[in-house]
Amino acid sequence: MGKRAAILAGLFVAAIAVAVGLYLFQPWRIFTTSTVTEDIPSAAPLPVPSQEPTAEPSAPAASATPDAPAGPDAPAGPAAPRELATGQLISHEHASSGTVRILELADGSRILRLEGLDTSDGPDLKVWLSDAPVIEGLAGWHVFDDGAYLDLGALKANKGDQNYEIPAAAVLGDYTSVSIWCARFAVSFAAAELKT
Fold first, then answer.
1. What are 59-107's pLDDT values in tens digits?
2. What SS3 class is residue 176?
3. Helix, coil or strand: residue 175
4. Are 123 and 182 in contact (CB under 8 A)?
5. Both ends of the chain: CA-CA distance in Å?
């Protein structure tokens, strides 16, 4: 009876170990993928200054054509976003590629944009702004939590074009890099040095 109890206890402990391992490592994510394709957010059009009416009669308005320049009273379209910094992702623990851009929208808000992202799926992936240097190879895998970093939230998908809001209070000059960070194992999947 004692031998049977020991075997059952051993099987129970092994089942617990397998369950914990599956929870932590989530090995099925090697085979899963997701894609998010977001446009660059548009901000509200900039206001057009009002003009005082003139006493002189005006000529009849010509109909607008695609080739005709917009008049002074034409509504302004959304201002194009201004690029503040950019960088190319390099692979760390997982093969990765894509472009990182920090954009300022017409309303003054800022976003971090991942374009053409292609990396592996994984547990607890985050997008971080960091003050860490981007180092190629194994030496660069674990540096991003050594100094200052700003967590912009969970990675939306492992492929595609994605936007992440940057808090208004964040001082961009404090951060020199971006990491796709696996918080569960404290390792960088990919990183990019930001250049202005």
1. 444 444 444 445 555 555 667 899 999 999 999 988 999 999 999 999 9
2. coil
3. coil
4. yes
5. 72
Give the C-alpha separation, 181 to 161, whole Å.
Answer: 17
Q: Which residue has the tokens 């808090």?
A: 167
Per the document, the length of the chain is 196
Q: Note the pLDDT tens digit of each residue in 70-83.
A: 555 555 566 789 99
Beta-strand runs (E) in 131-195: 149-154, 159-166, 177-182, 187-193
How far apart (Å, rounded) are the C-alpha atoms in residues 29 and 26? Answer: 6
Q: How far is 163 from 115, CA to CA, in rounded Å?
A: 9
Residue 8 host element (H or E): helix 2-25
* Spatial distance between the Cα atoms of 171 and 92, rounded to a whole number of angstroms: 26
User: What's the angle, vertex CA 121, arms to CA 117 and CA 123, rounded to 5?
Assistant: 130
Pair 92, 142: CB distance under 8 Å: no
Instruction: Fill in the DSSP letter of residue 46.
Output: P
> Residue 124: left (phi > 0), alpha (psi -120 to 50), or beta?
left
Contacts of residue 173, Cβ cutoff 8 Å, sequence gap at least 6: none
> Dihedral sign, CA of 129, 130, 133, 138?
negative
- Whether 41 and 105 have beta carbons less than 8 Å apart is answered as yes
Strand partners, 37: 161
